[in-house]
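Researcher: Here's a chain I'd like modeled. Treat it as a single chain, no partners, no ligands.
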Amino acid sequence: MKRELFSLALCAVFSLLRAVPNAWINEIHYDNEGLDQNEFVEVVVADPETLSLPDLTLYMYNGRNGEPYCLDCISEFIPGERVGPYQYYTWYQRGIQNDTEGMILVYHDTLVDIIAYEGSFTGTQAPAEGLLFPDVGVAESGSTPPDGSIYLSGLPGSEWRYGTASTPGSGNPGQDLSETMTPVELGYFRAEAGRGYIRLEWQSESETENGNYLLYRDGRRIASLEAAGTSTVPQTYVYKDKDIRPGRTYRYALASMAFDNALRMLDSLLVRAEGACEVTRPFYMAAPFPNPFNPRSSVHIDLFSAAGIELSVLDLKGRKLRTLYRGTCRNGSLDIPVNLRDLPSGRYILACRSGEYREARRITLLK
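Model: Modeled as a single isolated chain. Structure tokens:
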């Protein structure tokens, strides 16, 4: 079932307000000994009668190229047990891929959940273009029994586990959904583009043991703001993002981090920076792709004026290991290859500078 999810009209000042459903990917079986059997994905949706289920969609993503290879809407899943407000849905699908793969839940144009197994990767096509798929930390293998699975041990943010007794359509072993505390009741999340910045503002109606708010731009965390903790009155928060390129469209996501370190996505929106934004820096350095990588990656650099630039690889202590590029460039863009074949696995820093201006991105080499 193919559907257009991102036919959005973008303007100089753009804000999208839409509640994020309380839904998540709960259990998966994708590999076993012998021929693949009983492959499925289980999704849990709270209060499904309040949603338009045909607009809640699961996308399967290939980790090798970052592209989606299969999708279906939750309304076509098989309903299972109902536990309080939580309804279990199961999608039986042959051909769920092995190796490094991932999946997302999307409601209209809002990201609801995103995971990967057997490694992390970055999406290259909408609706997860530029988003990092985080690895759940457990996996199946060719020796997994046909009734095995990987599953959440509790509510979203809890540990993923591996087991040999799958439970499609019902609760996972030891899973307790009775702790239904919601750390944040979000009132709104909106944005306004100005000259040289994008102003993000959100308001909580109430907060319970809420430690921090995390802001993401195009899948990368850009800010952490201290939350109110526990509050029964509205709280307003503001963040001004000045690290933008005029005329470009950005995807922002807002998450809350509770005192118990449970991370919950709250809302997301698209914003187009004003074409008349004043530019006070000579270049913009995009996130390296792919990242993690082995051993090749690349980094895209947009130049706003003629400038001499240098791109180097540093260790985490800031010591230069090598120079990847040095030269004077006019307005335009560069795609600089990164090849760290002779370096050991680990984390490094890509640092780009022009005069006194510098930008840096973390990279991870996995061999």
